[in-house]
Structures are given as C-alpha cells and as structure tokens.
Automatic annotation (TrEMBL):
Annotated ranges, domain Beta-lactamase-related: 69-332
Keyword field: Signal
Signal peptide (from-to): 1-34
Protein name: Beta-lactamase family protein
Classification via Gene3D superfamilies: DD-peptidase/beta-lactamase superfamily
Domain of life: Bacteria
C-alpha cells in the first residue's frame, strides 16, 4: 500500500489538538493509581456574552472560516456563531474524537453489567485480532490510552475501512508499527486504535452493532435527536449543517465517526458527569487519573485540564471532516462549553490560540 505524506494529516492534527489542550503526560505509568480527584476549582465568574463574542472573533480571517460556541450550566446559557457557519444553534457537525466518550460510556456500562472487567484482556474478547505473541492488553489500558500500541495509525487516502481493516493497518502496515510498549515503560499515548478495539469489544460482547448499542443505551434514553453514527459510506450531513464542507466518510467509527450538535453534546456530557449513565462504581472512574497523569486522560478516557485560574474541566476534544471541536464542563456542572471551529490553516498553534481563548472566556 502506497501512502503519501498527507496520509497521516488527520491523525497528527487530532493528536496535536488534544495533547495541546490537555497537556498529556509522557511519564511512565506506575502500577499504583491516584485517588479520585475531588470536586475543586469551579468557575467564579458569571457568563460574559461580550467576552465570548470577542473570543469568537471577527470571522472569517486567516485562521478560521467560522466558529460556534455554546456555554451552559447553572449560570444560564449563551450560544454564538461567527463567520461562515450556520447561526442555527441546532446545526450539526462531525464531532470527531468526542465519539470516544460515547464509546467509553458503552464499555463502562458493560463492565457494570458484569460482562467485562477493567482487567479483561482484549485478546480474550477478540481472539486473533492482535498478534498472538503480544502481552495482554486490558480494557482499562484501551480506555486510558495506556495500551502501548504504536502511533499514529495510518490510513490510505480516500479508502473506507472496516474496524478490523483499520486495526490491521495500525499494527502491520504503518511505518511506525511494531511491538506495543509494555511494563514500566508504558506511556499515556493518545491512539485511535484503542477505541476501534473497544467498539469491536462492544459488538462482540453484546451481539449487536456499535450503532445499535449507541442508540439503545445513550441516544434514545437521553433524547439526543441529532446524534448518530452514519452508516459506512454515508457522507451526507443533516440540514442545517454547521458549515458547508466537503463530504467525509465516517470510517473513524467508534473513535471518531459520529455526527451531533451543540445542544445534544451538552446534554450528553452533563448527563455523563452527573451520573445518569453509569452506576457509582463506574462513575468514579471518569475522574480517577492514572497516578502519573496530572493532566491527561482519566482511567475511563475522559480528558482533564486545570485552567490557569485553577478551574478544572472534564470532557473531550475531537477533529474530523474539517471541524475542530471540544465539549468540556466543570465537575459540579456549574459551567459547560461546546465549541466547533472551521479552520482554514494547518497552523496548529494558531488554532489552539482560538480554542484556548474560548475556554478562557467560557470558564
């Protein structure tokens, strides 16, 4: 398979965006685990519409074609848009790796039902999917991005993958492919293949498709009318779409293929953090950090960040199909932020400046 240098672009951009916002640690993962983080560092200021409008900026410019932000929580709600994006608050967009939060929730529900454990080896559930001589990789390691699998995953431009094909590509066809890092050398490395494997685990354990479980367990119970996983090959977008962008095949699946909108993402994230989707034993995993990860991903794959003023936020970034997104909230749910940016540059530093500005204004 021949791959151009552009082959890795989407993955590198997504990793850079997530790591930059959340400060993912590269330190070793000891066996001991940190205790659950307390509810601290909440917002102190009311919602400031003028500051939020200023953070969106005068668009389009040389960085963004358009941007949308929705701020919610106990202090009220504000929604704004600027530039070449729909002003409809319900406009849909491709959420990219925010999909991972849905996948981790499904996985934790199966653990709560006793159909998996955090220590279950993925090789036990999916025999033959990974090389037989590899050391066991657990469900927890997939959730927390401590599996040791190599990054970045590779894909062939314009090709639509099945989940199994994607895993084969990641572990056998990439120039970076090789043995997973094991033992004390494991690092917390953001890797899409972890969540492709988790999606495959969901299907194997339940006997239903990932999309069916997504709808049955999360979408319908929460009334998320604009949230779905497109079928393979479906490049369409519902109307109104946030932006007029080229079609994108949703082959990123359980790690990045979903479509949603800001109100649905706000409802999902706040329901998740409030405890509506998980029993207490699994709920606490959302906020337990591997002992090395002061900033990064929790044991359940939720991103954590402490803003410069001490405010702590939990959620997920995601980039796909021309959108750069994020959904974050304080643990006490006083404040939440969902944003979607449409960049016109590949300069990650300039894009980061924009979503940092939104986070600063929102929280």
């Amino acid at each position: 398979m021949t791959k151009s240098p552009k082959t890795y672009g989407r993955w590198i951009a997504a990793v850079a965006a997530g790591a930059a916002l959340l400060g993912v640690s590269a330190a070793a993962v000891p066996s001991a685990r940190a205790a659950e983080r307390p509810v601290t560092g909440t917002v102190r200021e009311p919602i400031d519409p003028a500051r939020l409008r200023a953070a969106l900026g005068a668009l389009p410019d040389g960085v963004l074609a358009g941007a949308m932000a929705r701020v919610g929580g106990r202090d009220g709600r504000w929604t704004g848009a600027a530039g070449n994006v729909s002003a409809d608050p319900a406009a849909s967009f491709r959420i990219g790796s925010i999909t991972k939060l849905f996948t981790s929730t499904l996985t934790l529900q199966l653990i709560a039902e006793g159909r998996l454990t955090m220590d279950t080896p993925v090789q036990q559930v999916l025999p033959g999917t990974l090389p037989a001589h590899w050391a066991p990789i657990t469900i927890e390691q997939l959730l927390s991005h401590t599996s040791g699998l190599p990054r970045p995953a590779c894909y062939e431009q314009g090709r639509s993958y099945t989940p199994a094909e994607f895993i084969r590509s990641a572990i056998t066809e990439c120039p970076q492919a090789g043995e997973p890092v094991t033992g004390d050398a494991i690092t917390q490395i953001y890797m899409g293949a972890n969540y492709h494997l988790l999606g495959m685990v969901v299907e194997k354990v339940t006997g239903r498709t990932y999309a069916e479980e997504l709808n049955r367990r999360i979408v319908r119970p929460l009334g998320l009318r604009h949230t779905y996983l497109p079928a393979a090959g479906d490049t369409s977008m519902p109307s109104p779409a946030l932006a007029d962008l080229p079609p994108a095949d949703p082959w990123a699946w359980a790690e990045g293929g979903m479509v949603s909108n800001a109100p649905d993402l706000e409802r999902f994230l706040t329901s998740l953090l409030r405890g509506r989707l998980l029993p207490p034993a699994q709920q606490k995993l959302l906020f337990e950090m591997p002992s090395h990860a002061e900033r990064g991903f929790s044991r359940a794959g939720v991103q954590y960040y402490k803003l410069p003023d001490g405010t702590e936020v939990w959620g997920k970034t995601g980039s796909y199909g021309g959108y750069v997104n994020g959904a974050f909230a304080t643990r006490d749910l006083r404040r939440s932020l969902v944003y979607s940016l449409v960049p016109v540059t590949e300069d990650q530093k300039k894009i980061e400046t924009r979503y940092f500005a939104l986070a600063d204004a929102a929280f």
